[in-house]
Amino acid sequence: MRELFNRYRFFFLAVALLLSSLLLYSYSLRNKGATTFFERAILTFAAPFQAGLDGSVKFFKDGWGDYVWLVDARRQNRKLLQENLRLTAELQQVEEIRLQNERLRNLLDFIDDVDRAALPAQIIGEDASNWARTVTINKGSRSGLRDGLPVVAAGGVVGRIIKTAPGSARVLLVTDASSNVAALVQRTRSRGVLQGRGAKLTLKYALRDADIAVGDLLVTSGMGGVFPKGLSLGKVEIVERDELDLFQRIQVASAVDFSHLEEVMVLVGEEL
Fold first, then answer.
1. What Cα–Cα distance (Å) separates residue 141 from each residue in 55, 146, 158, 166, 262?
2. Strands 249-254 and 263-271, bridge-based pairing
3. Which CATH superfamily does the domain covering 117-271 fall into?
4. Do 13 and 31 form a contact (C-beta atoms < 8 A)?
5. Phi and psi of 269, rounded to 5°?
6. Which of 34, 39, 92, 163 is least enclosed by beta carbons within 10 angstroms?
């Protein structure tokens, strides 16, 4: 304490002198009507210190007020940011539900056209290797599914069930090389067999003289006992004819976008 006093003794003495002068001046004002030369000197000497003191007090007062305001503003901003993140997440969930409902409505409309009892399912796994093209759905034997049942989407044919478990089933896609579906050209009723070729499809056994053109829609013929008649399979992209070949070489784009496929319908009943 003594070291602090020794270090700032001139400052303390100045403050003491200033306070004493102000007290003396205040007392004089209450007891005298006129200002003396001594009082004017004190006022002149004390004015800079008083102005500095007032400025310091105002500075710290304003600084403290600004600090409190900034702390409160930061707290409010943090609260608003958290609320914004929460509302954004809720909006994303609502949008996802809306899109899912839209896809399900399209599926239901498609099933109404098919006129078959169907069970909705979601895709929970995918195998798109070079050896097989299959997906796994979240319904199985507990839901009444069995091997061989056709699986469709709003766009058209997806594939057929090849393996079931109590809570899931494996679906062989029409794009798999081992998949073969009896098909018709909707416009001309020309027949063929649609076979998978990875991301594309090919129509086999279409006679060279058959009227098939780019853009023609292929549908299921109903033969084979798996898929009902009239389901969309895809559209013709390439048609090649060779005078030495008995059949045309036809490439088809699938009616279903498998890269964005999320919900499907399993046809479980006979035609109504």
1. 85, 6, 19, 5, 20
2. unpaired
3. Rod shape-determining protein MreC, domain 1 (2.40.10.340)
4. no
5. -120, 170
6. 34
* Domain spans of the chain, in order of start: 1-114, 117-271
- pLDDT tens-digit profile of 155-184? 889 999 999 999 999 999 999 989 999 999
How big is the chain by its Cα radius of gyration, in Å? 44
Residue 10: pLDDT band (50, 70, 90) is low
CA distance 272 to 264: 20
Distance CA 119, CA 268 (A): 7
Nearest one of 174, 187, 259 to 224, comparing CA atoms: 174
Alpha-carbon distance 146 to 152, whole Å? 15
16-67, pLDDT tens digit by residue? 655 565 555 555 555 555 555 555 555 555 555 555 555 555 555 556 666 6
Confidence at residue 53, expressed as pLDDT on a 0 to 100 scale? 52
